[in-house]
Specification:
Membrane protein YkvI, Hydantoin permease, mainly alpha, globular, transmembrane
Length: 443
């Protein structure tokens, strides 16, 4: 359970840590601009994100949801559900066209190219990729995220070991000179707004991640892990930018400037890491938007996709920095509404979530190893059919989800055995198939 929870937490962070972290602009405006008080904002952001992550993942698992509208519709009234759905749609489009602007600013800052060059390059790539298998491309691009984390660590370690600042004077300078985000006049409001923005960008995928997990307890552990990791990554980034504030103030991509100052070669590599992160975020947002808008008429998908790309490209000429400063706060407040509704409903659903979690654990134990059954559980003496009847899922959905869960556990056990014993994987797979055949039949 703990191992899976940690894995879920890292999956969640893989969604959150995107182009925003890569540029450093949001962290600079939402935290560094408040000086030392911005450091307290990191703590607040981590706590709020942990609550949000737990709620998003838990509801996704509870309803076995494969998209966000099911959760929104189940846990809130019609008006709130529509507001949350349209907020998610607005976020997809808005962040998508901000990424076009980010691509232009990235290449302009690194090479001095006209800002439209990056935007045109992004547009051409987006239009071509829209015809391909986007899921496979996204998996490959997902490998860029660890590179981003490595570069943030490099920037942080170098800054901590080579830069010495007086925090009091640096704090005063930052408050007077660093431009903050519009609509967030205080450090705590900036932290909340930034968290709301990231949560809104993440909620749809987080619900899907939760829905891919039958074990409702593991996903809640994953949410707590995600909050801790989010705060840790944010702390490294913000403190680094705070210490380098005088050198990077005014740049559209402050983290890129830090890496160029460390070593031009690092800056060159980071330029393309950022470009790929921007592309990955843009693709994910525009693709999801087109899918959502055309879900009742999928034949129009590519037309809507192209239209969104073209409109986004045109709007990107407003500029990356103004868009982040003025558009993101609006999305942040919409995200706070989504957090407030789902976290509130999470506490209302707490007993039902706990009961369903125990029921599912009992079902998995009954199929895989009855000795693991908790004799004190109210479900200890129930058959599989009775457990399916008691679950909030319908019988067919319960059986299918349970089947998938047992297969995943068997795969994990086989991998653990292979790594421990050094056995041949094919032989282990065959043994696993033989030993678990009765379990699969029982389901």
């Amino acid at each position: 359970m703990l191992k899976r929870g940690i894995g879920i937490g890292f999956a969640f962070i893989g969604v959150v840590v995107g182009a925003g972290f890569a540029s450093g602009m949001e962290a600079f405006q939402y935290f560094v601009s408040y000086g030392e008080m911005g450091m307290w904002g990191i703590v607040l952001a981590g706590v709020v994100m942990a609550f949000a992550a737990v709620a998003f993942l838990a509801f996704g698992s509870y309803f076995q949801a494969n998209e966000h509208t099911r959760v929104f519709g189940e846990v809130s009234d019609g008006l709130s559900s529509k507001i949350m759905d349209w907020s998610a749609i607005a976020c997809m489009f808005s962040v998508g066209f901000v990424m076009f602007a980010g691509a232009g600013s990235n290449l302009e800052q690194a090479y001095g190219w006209p800002i439209y060059v990056g935007g045109v390059a992004m547009l051409v790539i987006m239009l071509l990729v829209g015809r391909l298998d986007v899921d496979k491309i996204s998996v490959v691009l997902g490998l860029v995220t660890p590179l981003l984390i490595i570069f943030v660590l490099i920037a942080s370690i170098w800054t901590f070991t080579h830069t010495s600042v007086d925090f009091a004077s640096q704090s005063e300078w930052a408050q007077q000179n660093v431009e903050g985000a519009t609509g967030a006049p205080t450090w705590w409001l900036g932290a909340l707004n930034h968290t709301g923005l990231n949560a809104l960008c993440t909620v749809s995928m987080a619900i899907v991640i939760g829905g891919d997990n039958f074990d409702n307890k593991s996903v809640r552990i994953g949410g707590i892990v995600a909050g801790f990791l989010y705060a840790a990554m944010l702390a490294l980034l913000v403190v680094t930018l705070f210490m380098e504030a005088k050198e990077i103030n005014g740049d559209d991509l402050p983290l890129l400037t830090v890496l160029f100052n460390i070593n031009p070669a690092l800056g060159q590599v980071m330029t393309w890491v950022i470009f790929l992160m921007v592309f990955n975020t843009c693709l994910g947002m525009i693709y999801a938007l087109a899918k959502r808008v055309t879900r009742n008429n999928p034949d129009n998908f590519y037309k809507v996709y192209v239209g969104a790309c073209l409109v986004g490209f045109v709007l990107s000429f407003i500029g990356f920095k103004p868009l982040v400063a003025n558009l993101y706060p609006i999305l942040g407040y919409l995200g706070l509404f989504v957090i407030a509704v789902l976290v509130y409903q999470y506490f209302r659903y707490r007993d039902r979530l706990d009961r369903e979690g125990e029921l599912r654990t009992a079902a998995v134990d009954l199929v895989t190893d009855e000795e693991n059954l908790d004799p004190d559980s109210e479900f200890a003496d129930m058959s599989l059919d009775e457990l399916a009847e008691e679950s909030m899922l319908d019988d067919e959905e319960f059986q299918k989800a349970l089947q998938s869960e047992v297969e995943d556990e068997n795969d994990e056990d086989t991998k653990d055995a292979d790594s421990a014993d050094g056995t041949d994987s094919e032989g282990s797979d065959a043994a696993a198939d033989s030993s678990t055949g009765s379990g699969s039949t029982k389901i």
